[in-house]
Amino acid sequence: MSQDIGFDVISDLNLTPNESSKFNWEGKATSLYCIVAGNISSDLKILMQTLIHLSRFYQGIFFIPGTLEYETATKISDRTSELITITSHIPKIGMLYQNIVIIDGVAIIGINGWNNTINDDLTVNNLMPVSARHEDINYLHAAIEKIQRHLDVRNIIVVSNAVPDPSLYFGEEPNITHTQSVLQIAIHSDTEHKIKHWVFGSYGKYVDTLSNYTTFIHNPYIRNTPYYAARIAVKS
User: Fold this and answer.
1) Where do the domains of the chain lie, and which CATH numbers do they carry?
2) Ramachandran angles phi, psi of 13, nearest 5°
3) What pTM, to 2 d.p., does this model score?
4) How would you label 142-180 residue by residue, b for 16+ Cβ within 10 Å and e otherwise?
5) How far apart, in whole angstroms, are the C-alpha atoms of residue 42 and residue 94?
6) 10 Å Cβ neighbour count for 71?
7) Which in 110, 137, 177, 233 has the greatest CB count within 10 A?
8) Strand 99-103 vs strand 155-160: parallel, antiparallel, or unpaired?
9) Gap between the Cα atoms of 206 and 45, Å rounded
């Protein structure tokens, strides 16, 4: 018998050294699992401390690094390796960068998506951010196609740090969106309609909207307002 699996959704904490000690998630968890769609901090020490803090309250945390985590990098492939090392030493943390995690019939697929808002001197596997975005789209296409054939997976959650479609800016999209390939195009590979939720980051406002059969959700930390997790429930 299927049952709901709950996931708390947070992203875009954008913590600075002055704020990191004030971030407290005590009593705010509403699910066994948490999805973090990136942009915790450009300071890797703060990133590690925050993930350790969050891990106290969840059975598992699924984290995709955002462009903020790469802001101080000189080469993105090196920073990715550094982030993998950091997260591998924190219990309960699952790194989602071009990766799939399956829990009780629910697959979670993670990509960065690479908004073109980072230093163009940086490279991802020797690719510029625009090409790296295409690489992530191709990975997502292939991952979704693969999961279609996985009989034990009934539902999919896609997680991207980048906004998947310009329409999700609701008229406030930056100029860069006119030159970017649309991440949401990968959803065409979902022939069995398994993608029930797409969690994303990199936008300044809360989003919870249904498009066709997929709910797109974004839950950023907005300063000077109470901040809580957005909860999604997925059939296992």
Assistant:
1) 4-235 (3.60.21.10)
2) -70, -35
3) 0.92
4) ebbeebeeeeebbbbbbbbbbbbbbebbeeebeeebeeb
5) 19
6) 16
7) 110
8) unpaired
9) 27
For the chain, the distance separating the N- and C-terminal CA atoms, rounded to the nearest angstrom, is 9
pLDDT at 141: 95
Taking CA atoms, 8 is separated from 32, 87, 157, in Å, by 8, 19, 12
To 10 degrees, the CA torsion angle through 122, 127, 130, 134?
A: -140
**What count of other Cβ atoms lies within 10 Å of the Cβ of residue 7?**
28
Q: What share of the chain is helix, strand, coil (3-state, %, to 5)?
A: 30, 25, 45
pLDDT at 199: 98
Cβ–Cβ < 8 Å for 220, 208:
no
Measured over all CA atoms, what is the biggest interatomic distance in the chain, rounded to whole angstroms? 52
Give the mean pLDDT of the chain: 89
C-alpha 205, offset from chain centre: 15
Distance CA 101, CA 196 (A): 16
CB 70 within 8 A of CB 64: no
Displacement of CA 82 from its chain's centroid (Å): 18
* Residue 25 · residue 57 · CB < 8 Å: yes
For 99, counting Cβ atoms within 10 Å of its Cβ (0-12 exposed, 13-18 middle, 19+ buried), the class is: middle
Lowest mean pLDDT among 83-97, 104-118, 218-232: 104-118
